């Protein structure tokens, strides 16, 4: 057999083993990061036969050797590289459970981690075998090459042992900065797939593509910074309202405490006078006055009646005061309130967005007719149900950014309905 053909077969076998070890590592890593929804057989067949054998060995070794200078191959290889990359992530989504972004990031992390550990094992074995280049892959196969898998898997097990808490957190924590994560994924996917295209382009075309990519990247980054600053400004406005609500709540509570202390002293004196008096019409009259006074004092207390959470209660009391000034009836119910895993900050921002929007709607609908705003919150099994309704014709669109962010974060649903008397919003958030 020709020496060159023998070298090609031996190098291809070595490449196939290396890629098979990597694909096995990717499968194991994906199983650690995500849950499976289908059997691994189809995914394993694609990894070993489609990726390792067809793409890595045939398309990157045999076909370039025989048809590397042909024009059709130079056009064929970049296209097949892109198709292989798309199919890989399609197989990820077919096999594993969850949203596409989480699965795509898990695949990206698997590729990077397994690739780095495999390259480390390759370098160590090449040094052990005293090859001319420590990073070479296309060379004669030797039996110590099997140690690549041993070194690679030792590194992977060590990484899994160290990163177990982070892996569990990745599986359970909802994503917050989703747009940034999408940008990171597309940059990785684009850089990985564009390599095969750039290998067949002249320098001028490469510079043009890099320039266009740089402009596109700067535009995305600028857009991301603008959206981030806009979100920070909205959160700052909500925090200012929250601070004002807490200040009003604190001053009102202090005033109520002083007033209740004075009333308590006066009522205690009345009770002593009633005890000293015998059964008489005057005593009955005193008792009636006492009960009427007690009822009046109770009705004047407007703080701390909506929920046990003092911070949310401050927000509700703040808006209740605003609604009274605008002659708006406020119906707030927190029956069976159990936030569970829902962050208090997110829930408070959601309430403040709804209540502030309702206040703006009522201000833009002046008239003799008294308006009303209703906010009901209840827990149903493992879900938190929030029902909001505001009378009046809504001229401004309801701010959906905070609502949609909570919907995505807590795997919920939303329903906005417009009626003749007003606009209603129903939200269902998962709290477990």
Task: Briefly say what this structure is.
This protein has helices spanning 3-33, 41-67, 71-95, 100-128, 147-172, 178-198, 203-276, 281-299, 310-325, 344-363, 401-409; strands spanning 35-36, 96-97, 328-333, 371-380, 383-391, 413-418, 422-430.
What labels describe this entry?
432 residues, alpha+beta, 5-stranded mixed beta sheet, 7 strands, elongated, two-stranded antiparallel sheet
Written description of the protein model:
With 432 residues, the protein is an alpha+beta fold. It is built from eleven helices and seven strands. The protein has helices at residues 3-33, 41-67, 71-95, 100-128, 147-172, 178-198, 203-276, 281-299, 310-325, 344-363, 401-409; strands at residues 35-36, 96-97, 328-333, 371-380, 383-391, 413-418, 422-430. The strands form two sheets. The chain has a five-stranded mixed beta sheet, covered by helices on one side. A two-stranded antiparallel sheet has the order 1-2. Helix 1 runs parallel beside helix 5 (147-172), helix 4 (100-128) packs across helix 6 and helix 9 runs parallel beside helix 10. The model is unreliable at 200-207 (pLDDT under 50).
